[in-house]
Amino acid sequence: MRKDVDLHIHTALIGCANDTMGVPELLGRCEQEGIMSVAITDHLNRPDQLPTHHLIKQQLREYEGPVQVTWGVEANVIDPATGAISVVEEHVEEMGFELVIAGPHSSYHEEPDVRSIVDLQHRLMMQVVANPLVHVLVHPWWFGRREFDSGVLAWLTDLQQWPEAQIRELGQAAAETGTAIEMNASAIINSPIYGPEFLADYKRAFGILLEEGAKFTTGSDAHNIDQLGRSSDAAEYLEAIGATDEDLLVPEPTDWS
Questions:
Q1: Helix (H) or strand (E) holding 26
Q2: What is the Cα–Cα distance from 141 to 111, expressed in whole angstroms?
Q3: From its phi and psi, is residue 83 left (phi > 0), alpha (psi between -120 and 50) or beta?
Q4: Domain residue limits at 175
């Protein structure tokens, strides 16, 4: 499987990545690492971030190196009742985003109600996959450390609570809509939050998604420059479940002329 694709990279400009992730610097590191097809996908959580996205886009236009860059954005689920995401059609039209990655970024719970959390995550992932603006369901089952430390997700040491029927339903929906599902290196594979039992179940779940015809992406989710290159870890995970290049979404690069 291709190990030179990374469709989830942040920059320092929005503020979620650190100062090492300037646009020229991160693209230079991609060249060094041999990562030749990338997407820049900073968060757009609020409309007042749009001017910063304009600046990012301008800096990408100035790049003249060999890395093929797709102009993208990451959206959060902002309303767990409806599954609405933070990026809307007007944002896509204004900015010309060519790759929208999106997904839940919280359990949206304050108590460790396992069945309710699992069912809500499934419903939200299904709604993201069905959203016509979205090309990629991003880092399924990622949560911030605060939710583990608070006890809300203390039970999430494996994925045995995610029913196979729900996994298959998600895979079928992704295959039907053409929405890819991300294998994320930094947020999942290399995260200290998730142990070997969780990762074994995660790999098993992705194998079921593959059986149902889902396509995948690989992403480093890099927030500092030393995380670039981790997308190869995601590719190795997909290889381990039998996925091939035919199962990988690699978008056309943006025409920056």
A1: helix 23-33
A2: 17
A3: left
A4: 5-247
Is position 97 within any domain? yes
Question: Which CATH number does the domain housing residue 13 bear?
Answer: 3.20.20.140
pLDDT tens profile 173-220:
999 999 999 999 999 999 999 999 999 999 999 999 999 999 999 999
CB 101 within 8 A of CB 182: yes
Beta pairing, strands 136-137 & 180-184: parallel
What is the enclosing helix (H) or strand (E) of 231? helix 231-240
Question: Hey, is 118 helix, strand or coil?
Answer: helix
Encoded tokens for 235: 């590719």
Q: Is there a domain that residue 235 lies in? A: yes
- Residue 144, number of CB atoms within 10 A of its CB: 14
- Read off the pTM: 0.98
Query: What per-residue confidence (pLDDT) applies to 116?
Result: 98
